[in-house]
Specification:
Elements lengths: L1 H31 L3 E7 L7 E7 L3 E9 L7 E9 L2 H13 L19 E7 L4 E6 L5 H29 L4 H13 L10 H8 L6 H11 L10
Antiparallel strand pairs: 1-2, 1-5, 2-3, 3-4, 5-6
Helix pairs in contact: 2-3, 3-4, 3-5, 4-6, 5-6
Length: about 230
């Protein structure tokens, strides 16, 4: 009877080893999954009326929005682009998320007398957790700073969307749009300018665009991600 028990013991040990190996592989997969912070805004009758920015802990980010095809049209279409955050902004996003306890509690001020500035949502997700918080206005300092950072980022990305359209269909509108973008960059109202560098480069390299416009695009392309330093 003893010899017949040995194979069962070995089979059990082998089975346990396989289970342990599967568990370790699964645990490593969960640990390797990047954390993500997502900010979204829904504001009917604004432009764009919806957008979201998702930022991975590895620095890769994605922007989605629903916006008018052109300023003269009521037709809307989705727009999406992907980019890499500057290391400083990536670190800041996750630092502020940590300070806000990863949005695991209520972050809305609850003050119904405040003006509506859009339905905002912050989401934190990693391999083990997912927290979602909705708000109009938050009195939490970290959330305020994170909201402002994402809104500056979104402003930059929406310039990229409009410049892409104007460069393709309405080149005469590029000058006014780039003037406005340059002014907002100088006022530190934009962030992550490198996210639109590709469209700026296409304008710079296009000999059919007038030189003054190409020069303005060149200045913007040479600015650091956060724009010019504050004075």
């Amino acid at each position: 009877m003893i010899p017949s028990a040995l194979p069962r013991s070995r089979a059990f040990t082998a089975s346990a080893a396989v289970c342990l190996a599967i568990f370790l592989v699964s645990a490593r997969a969960v640990a390797a999954e990047p954390a993500t912070v997502t900010f979204s805004l829904d504001f009917p009758n604004s432009e764009p009326e919806h957008y979201s920015i998702s930022v991975n802990s590895d620095g890769h980010a994605k922007y989605d929005c629903s916006a008018r095809v052109s300023p003269d049209s009521d037709e809307r279409e989705p727009y999406q682009t992907e980019f890499d955050l500057s290391p400083e902004t990536r670190a800041r996003v996750f630092e502020l998320a940590a300070q806000a306890h990863y949005f695991s509690g209520k972050i809305d001020s609850g003050n119904n007398k405040l003006a509506f500035t859009g339905a905002k949502k912050l989401v934190y997700q990693d391999g083990q957790h997912k927290y979602t918080a909705n708000y109009n206005y938050s009195s939490v300092a970290a959330v305020q700073q994170l909201t402002a950072l994402f809104q500056r980022m979104a402003a930059t990305l929406d310039f990229g969307r409009r410049l892409t359209y104007y460069h393709r269909y309405q080149k005469l509108a590029l000058d006014e749009e780039l003037k406005r973008m340059e002014a907002e960059a100088k006022d530190n109202e934009l962030s992550e300018l490198q996210a639109v560098r590709e469209v700026l480069k296409r304008i710079i390299d296009d000999s059919s665009v007038i030189n003054v416009v190409r020069a303005r695009a060149q200045r913007l392309a040479e600015m650091p991600p956060s724009g010019p330093p504050s004075h």
